[in-house]
Amino acid sequence: MSAPAYEKVILRNLQDPGYRGTLAEYRARGGYSGLPKALQLQPQEVIDLVKQSGLRGRGGAGFPTGLKWDFVPKDLALTKYVAINGDEGEPGTFKDRQLLEQEPHPIIEGTVITAYAIGAHVAYIYVRGEFVEGAKVFQRALEEAYAAGFLGKNILGSGFDLDFYMHRGAGAYICGEETGLLESLEGKRGQPRLKPPFPAVKGLFGKPTVVNNVETVSNLPPILVGGPEWYAGIGVPPKNTGTRIFSISGHVERPGNYELPLGLPLRELIFEHAGGIRGGRQLKAVIPGGASSPIFTPAHLDVKMDFDSVAAAGSMAGSGGVVVMDETTCLVRVARVIAHFFAHESCGQCTQCREGTAWLHKMLTRIDEGKGRPEDLEVILDVCDNMKGKTICVLSDAAAMPIESYIKHFRDDFEHHIRGGACPTGMA
Amino acid sequence: MPTVIIDGKELTVDKGTNLIEACRALGLEIPHFCYHPGLPVVGQCRMCQVEVEGQPKLAIACATEAADKMVVRVHSERAVKARKAVLEFLLLNHPLDCPICDRGGECPLQEYTMAHGPGKSRFAEQAIDKVHRTKARPIGPYVIFDAERCVLCTRCVRFCKEVPGTAELGVIQRGDRSEIGLFPGKQLDNPLSGNVIDLCPVGALTSRDYRFKSRPWDLVARVDTTCALCSTGCSITMDVRYLKARREVLRVRPRVNKAVNTYWICDQGRFGFHFIHDEARLRAPSVREDGHRRSLSWDEALGRTARGLAEALRAGAGTVGVIASSRLTNEEAYLLQRFARDVLRTPNLDFRLRPEQEPTGDRKLDVLRHADQTPNTRGLRAIGLLPGAGGLGVAEMLAAARDGRLKALLVIEEDPLGDPRWAGPGQEAFARLDQIAVADLFLTRTGEAGHVVFPARSYAEKEGSFTNAEGRVQRVRPAVEPPGQIWSLAEILGGLARHLGTPFPMLGPREAFEALVREVPAFAGMGYEALDPVGLPLSGNGKGSAG
Ligand SMILES: Cc1cc2nc3c(=O)[nH]c(=O)nc-3n(C[C@H](O)[C@H](O)[C@H](O)COP(=O)(O)O)c2cc1C
Ligand code: SF4
Ligand code: SF4
Ligand code: FES
Known about the structure:
By secondary structure, chain A is α/β, with parallel strands linked by helices.
């Protein structure tokens, strides 16, 4: 059975197995033809065009990209910055990695378009520390783009200047949160800032800054070339337009990155594109948008995978990381592993998050090891409640909400552990 | 000016006031750890959550500006639960060693827990999994760090970064492994380091000096006064307790004074007070006889001094000199210049022994400390404790003594012979003087050369006022009794006048201050009471009449 084919926007060139993503190859396939179109427009026209396209951020929050740009003060005298988020730390997500390693030029082209729209002359990309290959490829691409006049002074004779620097992370998930990223870029301890002020007003070095995800800006060249109406025609207009890259992992036959229109049913994603559950087993649970997102069950298979539909179903589309779990999976262990992640990654400035993530991890470890107490689940749920909506950034929520959802949908797994002191699935 | 409604009470505040300060104005304390009015707001501890009508999430009071018609509920069910939760989180890994903690009894964490906290821990991991950390590690000359008690409010970190600008401290690691630590190769040894002890809302940073010396409830008095250890004149509180039936100053803390020191004091002011309890303090007058010092009664000592002075006075006018310290209070200075004029009838009067006492140039060593290590140079200048018409300054007095024109010298709380700049000319001069009377806390070089030596009171034993380098007049109050029967300078001068048979008014500090207000224009219009709590500025240029 072959999966239905859809038009690709970002991974189009990668369908050609010989494609290496060099400047020459990218240009041979029409690359860098969106940028000249943008440079012929007024910056505000570019912003309006991106608004019309309906593009929303692919980094996690799904915030409308054009609207974010529009928040930047229009004062020409102000220094502004663009920061591209390539930290990709969300467990279950590996799309930005592929773009950095295999298709770096649309990121550069999209960044120049972004910088032009908001009037920035310096851009940074923050690349996850572990992406050694991606960083190497991207650095080479930057050099190619400078040599070809797509970066530097007077880009394509437009009079617009942009310098673009790469900065590599050092292994902290929290540096993917936009203000943590900015702190880290400034050379400080990577921890989120109290907001407001938001980065669009006071960002890098105190100047207005747009932070966009690698995948988000990769959409810009095709939007400029194809026009906003074309882009808005993909997906579920008007608010969930375009495609996104779903990183599908876990117990499926064909894990990998799949670029698909927003709004495809989860069922199609798993069973047609990813080849279904491995070994013909039963589906048990799905994380729909990275480790931060509340869990789905087989009852959610018809949810459309776009921002608003996933939210309406009680989770979030997040970073597009879809983790599929079959019947052999124990949600207590999942909870323990995920709780460990967040406890390890909390920056530690907010009391609830610092202490709550660690406490959750300790309680879940105890339950997983068969030492749970009957009152534990209520304590866990109350601790989650105390962690949500009360901190500087949403990592605390991201740590609490999935755990709540596991208990809500898979309470049996937990109670079995607590009562019987052992795992119902026999997971070792 | 916005009017907010807090728990049903209306309050109009200045624009820019945050909700913690607004509540404080209503007498309502919103618990908080990371917020401090003297430091940047970071909103990290999340202890100060309140409900603001119309906002879906709870707001942190420290980072929320009071806005017009804003309706704030400090005690809504949601806000109370959220704050209780923060305390529960903070106590998870807290050692609960309050009985042996120096902060016990004056610890916000302890107080909030009693008032708002969870009664009982739900933390079942305690025995096996509680995080244990370093205890009692010295991190600088004055400060000890106990990581287990730390609530990671980062006040100490922000202080070192923002106020002295030295940034010795940072948060090391992340999540629940976060710990306050020194940057490699650093010590917490900036000149303001002791402030972190007051800033720390728990017993994580304690004073090596005060550690285990007392419990807050042993303190018998907290005396609001002014630091005398430099010309900045920081507002301080001296905490006093009884030790062996004597009152003793246990520690010195800053007192808020926006016009002077804001919230801070330097380490010298905080820890440099111990000399007041030094065993070597002079306790009784003494006289030098055949190369030995012999104690004698106050009456005898005053009599001998008066006889020496009278003899000098008989030799003519201007044969007596007075060198006084700018450690004297305004009131002492006033009486002393009157004594010189009316009793000694001499214009030879001076206090200037050091270049830092000159009123020129920027004399700040850092954000607080002043190069002039005396508290009242500006006051002495304003009052005119300086050579009168035809009078001699310090150098001229010494020269006059050397060639026999000056016969007697009174030296009050200064030690020219102990100062390398003056010791040379001083030795020769002192050798020729017929009468040297010295009053000081210790037996100095000058005291050793003195014929009669009187013990003097320290700044912790004096009442009156100082005028700081900026011209602000502030109160000085006695926190303890002098270590022996030590007369005040007013009493010494009165006693000398009596023995000399010259009328001289006995004025207490308040009366002396009132006389100053009447007679010295820079002090015009001031009231003694009005000096509290933050002092009053001199009027005009305050430079005084002479000099
Ligand atoms: C804890 C945390 C981690 C995040 N990590 C990433 C990340 O690795 N990459 C990313 O693009 N966005 C991440 N985000 C989202 C960013 O804060 C931000 O919303 C995003 O980069 C904006 O770009 P976009 O509008 O193009 O999506 C994270 C957010 C949080 C709260
Ligand atoms: S919520 Fe957690 S990760 Fe986010 S700022 Fe607070 S402590 Fe750091
Ligand atoms: S040591 Fe004290 S002041 Fe410093 S972070 Fe910890 S609790 Fe706060
Ligand atoms: S005092 Fe407001 S968050 Fe700490």
